Amino acid sequence: MIKKMTFVFAPFALALVLGACSDNEEPAANEEAAAPETEQTEETEEGTEDAAPAESALELPEEDAVVAVVNGEEIQGKVYNSVARQFESTLLSQGQDPSTEENLQLIEDEAMSVIIGNAVLLQDAKEKGHEADEAVVEERMEELKANFEDEDAMNEALAETGFTLEEMEEQLREQLVYESYMENEIDAPEVTDEEVQAAYDQFAESSEEEAPAFEEMEPTIRQSLQEQNDQEATFARVEELREDAEIEVKL
């Protein structure tokens, strides 16, 4: 099952477009970071197929439908659909059936939580004066375009997501706002040496094979624990903001 909402702001359309790009280049690849959706390939009894996976069981709203209103800001169906499909893809990659009643409800709940959480965080960030560096936005747009053979390939991938290039640029801009907000507004505790050592000891005790040396694993463990702290601090901030927010779910 999907771990209870791992909240990380991401430009949803960007994940989908890059997923389509990676699928076109390497049909057998299943890259978690790209979060491919309907074009994700599946391993079958006969082998890997280039065709689309089994038909999705998700009941998705129209792309231009309003699925939620957060402090007066309308969130469109295509944003919700992007997140829901990413969760569906995650379940598939874990070997689970996303079409069960339990998982369908889980996907709906988690997708709605993510888009509402993103909305309240970004609203708070903008109220506190966080802005995107337009030079960095332009740089990231160029990096995005470089993932495709030509403009036609990029436009084709965009068309499949339902997002325009202008909307993609706005999502990149919002990600920069979010990054600035996280760096300056979210105060997560630093991981201690004792916590790193305890995590390593637990791993070493539970591992069936001999664990690598502590010095080798220490940076990875510390980073993972710090990310958990950051997540927990972000969850707490989202809950604070949601308590004071006017939220109407229309799905």
Outline type: globular
Output the helix-strand order. Answer: HEEEEHHHHHHHE
Largest sheet: 3 strands, antiparallel
Contiguous uncertain segments of 5+ residues: 1-11, 15-53
* Termini gap: 23 Å
Please tally the helical runs, counting DSSP H or I stretches of 4 or more residues: 8
How much β-strand is present in the residues? 5-15%
Mean pLDDT comes to 82
Evaluate the radius of gyration. Answer: 20 Å
What percent of residues adopt helix (DSSP H or I)? 55-70%
**Widest beta sheet: strand line-up:** 4-3-5
Q: Supply the helix-strand structural class.
A: mainly alpha
Strand element count: 5
Question: What does this protein structure show overall?
Answer:
This protein is mainly α. It has helices spanning 12-25, 77-93, 101-127, 134-145, 151-161, 165-185, 193-206, 214-244, and strands spanning 43-44, 47-48, 66-70, 73-76, 247-249. A hairpin with a 2-residue loop joins strand 1 and strand 2 (47-48). Helix 2 (77-93) packs across helix 3, helix 3 packs across helix 8 (214-244) and helix 7 packs across helix 8 (214-244). The longest helix is centred in the last third of the chain and has 31 residues, at 214-244. The two termini are 23 Å apart.
